[in-house]
Amino acid sequence: MGSAMRDRSNGDISVVLCGQAGQGVQTVEFLLTRLMSRAGYQVFATKEYMSRIRGGANSTTIRVSDRPVAGAVDRIDLLIPLNEGAVEHVVSRISARTVVLGERQITGDVPVLRACTFFDVPFTAIASAIGNKLYSNVVAVGAIAGLLGIGAEHLRASVRHFFAGKPSGVVEDNVRAADEGYAAVAKVDLPHELTLSEPNRVPARGELLLNGGEAVGMGAIAGGCNFVSSYPMSPSTPVLTFLAQQAKNFGTIVEQAEDEIAAVNMAIGAWYAGARALVTTSGGGFALMTEGLSLAGMLESPLVIHLAQRPGPATGLPTRTEQADLEMAVYAGHGEFPRIILAPGTLADGFHLTQRAFDLADKYQVPVFILTDQYYIDSYYSTPAFELSRIGVEKHIVNTSRDYRRYESGATGVSPRGVPGYGEGLVVVDSDEHDEEGHITEDAQLRVRMVDKRLAKGVSLLRDAVPPELVGPPDYRNLVICWGSTYHAVKEAVSRLERDDTAMLHYRQVYPVPADTADYLRRAERTVIVEGNATAQFGQLLHLQAGIAVTHQVLNYDGLGFSVERILHRLRDILA
Question: In this predicted model, what pLDDT tens digit does every residue of 392-447 receive, in sequence order?
Fold first, then answer.
């Protein structure tokens, strides 16, 4: 029997789909999550998948609840194995309380299943009788809906909506497939713990079911992004594809460049011309952009970079997740120049921080990073509609006069930024060291003044730093620190500790570290950092910036995202 613990919350069911790439796991996932959401339940879904087009073993975990859920769990309450080897792929997460819905001829007599409740439903045979074994995925959706007590009309409406663009015969065959799956489990006597409570709500008007890639893409649009240049690289590509899909609606130019070097230089050129540009990439792609990043630093050009992390070095695990590119983002680029690094933890963060990134880049004329990871980009859940009342595009471009100087000095280090053709001034920029007009210089004293000018912005931009969020008692003794995508899993784990002396501190801006950080750390007797890397990169940054070392670490670098149980068990050990 596997080692997964059975920490189950009331009204919360964890459904796991496992099958090969190309087998239609995503179809089942899409249909099931939309079906549950329309029925009034809260849903959260996350996936892990191998780096291949066909074959392998991929799994999706879907949490269904009558309350908000947004963190991954290890436990499996209901398992749907769709191919041979699927059970073995998730064996460590199976317990005697796991209910399995599948085809015995496919799963075989795997020892771990002997202690489980197994419902043998002939998905393939049912689908073939309807006319095509490809319908087996929809049969599975119907069976799951039947097991969880979702109304048949909700099921049919969701299937019709999903296949609306297909010929009517295909639509009706899929509805029949769903009905047959539903009927196949109609008389099943479910274990009590798999019974869902009736949802105590109807989906709120404007409620969204989004993944992280869509949230970041929406934030870019809200930030006035009108130019995107990128080279596709997982896991950053969903942002590129989303913005490409929306390009006509919002007048955005989307350019798939020949490589990452071209992409970052095109973005810098677009900002120079007055556009608001984004590049979206991952670690290996960003490594090629570092010279361009340094160019933006010398030109004092705004630049927004979405960096979606995955495990390295080199190609590493290209479809997995990690938080190991923080130090690269902090120190990338030759020379010294300021930058801002934002790391969303919630979908709302992804929207609002990305929107804010464009304003900060424009205001301070520095590169701004949106630092996500595969787990964040590919996970999705129900979230209230984003607050738009205070959203606006802050532009800081000036109408230039004849005596305009692009790099005019001032106390904040921020010079008036003009663009060619807007005003009477000449807008000169140079990748070499330059004077206030933008002309090349090797004057030693002027060099010092220009370096100091650029670095002065690092002090100025701290005034707009995004503060960390404290969750829990303000008089804490134990402080659990996290950043970026670990937000929901850590928050749920800390809540389930049920300790009135423990709080969570989540950072959405990881560089520069907000000024009140030392105050938070000094108030704690024990500090714990939770990070998806092997060396506690953010913990080291806190020590460097705040002068206080974090006392304990919860680290994960196996390529999989943190689960609530994994964090909970480690915290219990540390705080015992």
Answer: 899 999 999 999 999 999 999 999 999 999 999 999 999 999 999 999 999 999 99
Q: Which of 483, 239, 221 has the alpha carbon at shortest distance from 374?
A: 239
Is 280 a domain residue? yes
Is residue 69 situated within a structural domain?
Answer: yes
User: Kind and range of the H or E element at 278?
Assistant: strand 277-282
Contact 569, 5 (CB under 8 A): yes
Query: Cα–Cα–Cα angle for 131, 134, 136, nearest 5°?
Result: 90
pLDDT digits (tens, 9 = 90+) for 164-214: 999 999 999 999 999 999 999 987 776 666 777 777 655 556 789 999 999
Pair 364, 311 in one domain: yes
Q: What is the tally of structural domains in the chain? A: 4
**Which contacts (CB < 8 Å, 24+ apart) does range 46-53 have?**
46/72, 46/375, 46/378, 46/379, 46/561, 47/378, 47/379, 48/319, 48/320, 48/559, 48/560, 48/561, 49/21, 49/319, 50/21, 50/319, 51/317, 51/318, 51/319, 52/21, 53/21, 53/22
Global model pTM greater than 0.85: yes
Quickly count: other Cβ atoms within 10 Å of residue 436's Cβ. 17
Find tokens 């931009």 and name the residue: 461
